Amino acid sequence: MNRADSNSLIHSLQSEGFLETTEYIDSDIIIINTCSVRQHAEDRVFARVRLFNAFKKREKKSMKIIVMGCMAQTSKDRLYSLGVDKVFDVYNEIKILDYIKNDDLIENDFNSNYVFSKSYVDKLYTHKAFLPITHGCDNWCTYCIVPHTRGGLISRPSKDILEDLKSLIDSGAKEITLLGQNVNSYGEDTKDMSFVQLLEEVDKTINDSDVWIRFTTSHPKDFDKNLADAIINLKSVCEHIHLPFQSGSNRILNLMDRKYTIEEYLEKVSYLRNITKDFLISTDIIVGFADETDEEFTETLNVIKSIGFEEAYLYKYSERAGTVAHEKKIAYDPNNGSLRLSKLIEIQRAIALSLLTKQVGTFHKVMINSIAKDKNNYLGRTRENRSIVIRLNDDKVLKTGEIYNAKIIDIRGHSLIADII
Ligand code: 5AD
Ligand code: SF4
């Protein structure tokens, strides 16, 4: 989401004549887009602000330091005290442009009149694009800061999304990711159309099998058969879903206010697995929340073992001031969290490796993303979002954004190695 917001702001600044620098020491304006989801992300921003401000003072530069994004809600005063010139309450690039150009600004209320920015293809990978379809979240998971920092759900009008989609395709986008904190709740506020209807409209608009559609993130409480069937039936929609389950324990899921049981989660996954032969499910897990017991942690381990995720993002619970869990003083033990996180990482790596090994010998369509740093291989992804290393052979030049048939011939570390056939 932040990559999409930053990309869009960079485009607007460039069209106003601003130039991007690669080194901060050369810049007149530094804009830091921030995330508050875990403490670690915030700590990195504080460190950067200190570094930039020290440089500014030492060199007596008139450089401006601007902060946008979620930390505007959580840490405004601290950011100002560290030398930030302006903190923006909302993700609103028009205001940032006004400020940079005129040095003044009309303050507006948090999240009021939120304006979706136009999407552009990625600067580095010009065949890829992010397309935000919602902003904010109404789910209020008790550990999560997002509804507090980004505000409630705002769905973008479908007409604007489809227009943006067309213009991305005209600009050469071949892989477009629809973005939202919980894409499944698209349209619940506006009653414009449901997420499944939006996917159908997107698929109709594309009408070209060379463009792949991805979306993230899905919430298990809203994920249903309709959506599963749509993913399978719509040609452009890729066979991958990011479906965070967070914990294998029903007591913990309840305290997180996730609104599903682990049995319901497992049932949804088995529906998907039954209707299609190859479908990648990735997930997020938080360990150490709410004085998680050994047994509850084991329940989480059992879920990853029984489902078999090739990809999982694993986190230790990070308490965020202002969340429901913080207000209710839900207890947790950070040391326990660290130990369990290490264990979980180790087990998940072994599971992923054994699943990836089974891919050797299989055939896939692969979209080329880039040439590897060593210039000896190309890097790409399958429709299921598996990351693939393509060996360079016969001096054949592959084009980024193009789709090739490939056979997986080997695995090195956790990387799948393939040849074009
Ligand atoms: N602590 C740790 N992980 C968190 N996430 C969200 N909030 C927290 C928190 N307070 C994780 C969830 C979510 C992902 C984007 O970040 O797993 O799915
Ligand atoms: Fe946070 Fe839950 Fe919303 Fe995801 S669905 S952004 S975890 S409140």
Features:
Transcription Regulator spoIIAA; alpha/beta; three-stranded parallel beta sheet; globular; 14 helices; 4 domains; five-stranded mixed beta barrel; Rossmann fold; binds 5'-deoxyadenosine; binds iron/sulfur cluster; 421 residues
Structure in a nutshell:
With 421 residues, the chain is α/β, with parallel strands linked by helices. Helices cover 37% and strands 20% of the residues. The chain folds into four domains: 100 residues, Rossmann fold (3-Layer(aba) Sandwich); 123 residues, Transcription Regulator spoIIAA; 108 residues, Transcription Regulator spoIIAA, CATH 3.30.750.200; 58 residues, OB fold (Dihydrolipoamide Acetyltransferase, E2P) (Beta Barrel).
Explain what this protein looks like in three dimensions:
With 421 residues, the protein is α/β, with parallel strands linked by helices. It has 4 domains: 2-101, Cobalamin-binding domain (Rossmann fold); 116-238, Transcription Regulator spoIIAA, CATH 3.30.750; 251-358, Transcription Regulator spoIIAA (2-Layer Sandwich); 363-420, OB fold (Dihydrolipoamide Acetyltransferase, E2P) (Beta Barrel), CATH 2.40.50.140. The chain is built from 14 helices and 16 strands. The protein has helices at 2-15, 39-58, 71-74, 76-81, 93-102, 146-149, 158-170, 195-206, 225-233, 250-256, 262-275, 294-307, 324-327, 334-357, and strands at residues 29-34, 64-69, 86-87, 128-132, 134-135, 154-155, 175-179, 212-216, 240-242, 280-287, 311-316, 363-371, 377-382, 387-391, 403-412, 415-420. The strands form 5 sheets. A 5-stranded mixed barrel has the order 12-13-14-16-15. The protein has a 3-stranded parallel sheet with strand order 1-2-3, sandwiched between helices. Strands 4-7-8 form a 3-stranded parallel sheet, with helices on one face. Strand 7, helix 8 and strand 8 form a beta-alpha-beta unit. Helix 7 packs parallel to helix 8 and helix 12 packs parallel to helix 14 (334-357). The longest helix is centred in the C-terminal third of the chain and has 24 residues, at 334-357. The radius of gyration is 22 Å and the shape is globular. The structure holds 5'-deoxyadenosine and iron/sulfur cluster. Iron/sulfur cluster (SF4) binds at residues 137, 139-141, 144, 146-147, 181-182, 219.
